[in-house]
């Protein structure tokens, strides 16, 4: 059932703008995995997504805190996870991962492979790789909600 859309973006601003457009096409509850090497642009993409939800402040990667919650004016909850420094997937139980997932927010998870076995199938999985002219985003929808988002990304505008 999974479907994939590929986008190539050039520059940080293009990543933020795409993130904003992407964020406008999603609705909570949703689980999104972001994969890519260090410096690939995962947090930059999250900045754009959060902008779509109305966040105006800085967006930093929660590398040391593991999760940064955003309670937004529109009443939405966005949880930005960065699992890069996670020692063991079981540590997610101590931060209450099940509660975060059950709250019905938008969960953006960087380095999800570090939490293997602790997450359900993500609605969307974004793999960011460096290419000669920028970044290649391979976006896979794994659920009906995810494939609906992909369809909206394929529409003009």
SSE blueprint and pairings:
Elements: E1 3-9, H1 12-24, E2 30-36, H2 42-52, E3 67-71, E4 77-82, H3 91-94, H4 97-102, E5 106-110, E6 124-131, E7 134-141, H5 144-154
Helix pairs in contact: 1-2
Outline:
This protein has helices at 12-24, 42-52, 91-94, 97-102, 144-154, and strands spanning 3-9, 30-36, 67-71, 77-82, 106-110, 124-131, 134-141.
Report what the structure shows:
- There is one protein chain.
- This protein is an alpha/beta fold and 157 residues long.
- It has a single domain (7-40, 62-142), classed as Rossmann fold (3-Layer(aba) Sandwich).
- It is 29% helix and 29% strand.
- A seven-stranded mixed sheet has the order 1-7-6-2-5-4-3.
Principal-axes geometry comes out as: globular
What structural class do helix, strand and pairing data support? alpha/beta
| C-alpha Rg (nearest Å) | 15 Å
Strands of the largest sheet, in order across it? Answer: 1-7-6-2-5-4-3
Could you say what the CATH topology is called? Rossmann fold
Mean pLDDT over the residues: 89
How many DSSP helices? 5
Summarize the amount of helix as a percent range: 25-40%
Largest sheet: 7 strands, mixed
What's the name of the CATH homologous superfamily? P-loop containing nucleotide triphosphate hydrolases
